[in-house]
Design brief:
alpha/beta, about 20% strand
């Protein structure tokens, strides 16, 4: 099993090198890292160039960037990873075991947030529980999917927000997700910068608008 780790970026120079450094053991084991930049105005591309297998750019927007990355991928399994999310050790083996123990064609990781505030632990718990109950994951949970299955359901649609929810909704119609309980660690910066309660309310408002079919822009 070969993983294609697809990373959309936009102005991630501050953290891109330690993020990519953590992926080098996976590259050494034969997996590939594809970075799709959305037009960064900082040094993201320069810093990343020597640490990925494929680096290119396209119009900004996570859905557009990740779909472009998927079209360039050569792996059997696509892993969509945000640039502020760290995989657990031996993530490739965990994915291989998850697939070998089930007939599922896609899955996600549990998540924990990097901050220490007790509310962040509650948020991570609720995110994991929600995904368990609904079969819907978010991009923070490092969604992975067999490439042929991803292509069969049409990949990412070119929508400005909630591309992860839309993708999971269509994947779930054909196959239940498998969950890996060894968590990814996602940066809590957006909650800490914008306020925990404000960020949670905003995310739920956007989610409600999406399910009601409202225009997101």
């Amino acid at each position: 099993m070969k993983l294609s780790i697809i990373v959309p970026t936009l102005n991630e120079a501050k953290g891109i090198q330690p993020f990519l450094r953590a992926l080098q053991p996976l590259r050494h084991r034969g997996h590939e890292v594809i970075l799709i930049d959305g037009g960064s105005q900082d040094q993201t591309v320069d810093y990343a160039r020597s640490m990925v297998d494929c680096l290119t750019s396209c119009a900004p927007g996570r859905a557009i960037q990740m779909q472009y990355g998927a079209e360039l991928a050569t792996g059997d399994v696509l892993l969509f990873l945000h640039a502020d999310t760290v995989l657990p050790d031996l993530a490739d083996e965990l994915i291989k075991q998850a697939f070998s123990c089930s007939k599922n064609d896609w899955g996600r990781f549990d998540v924990r947030l990097s901050g220490q505030h007790w509310l962040l632990h509650c948020i991570a718990f609720m995110m994991n529980k929600r995904s368990q109950l609904t079969g819907i994951a978010t991009g923070d949970q490092a969604i992975f999917v067999r490439r042929d299955f991803f292509e069969a359901i049409g990949g990412f649609l070119a929508i400005p927000l909630m591309e992860d929810i839309d993708l999971c909704s269509r994947l779930r119609q054909q196959s239940k997700p498998v969950c890996i309980h060894s968590p990814v660690t996602t940066s809590s910066r957006r909650w800490e910068q914008n306020g925990i309660f404000r960020t949670v309310l905003l995310m739920w408002w956007i989610r409600c608008c999406f399910y009601l079919g409202a225009a997101l822009f």
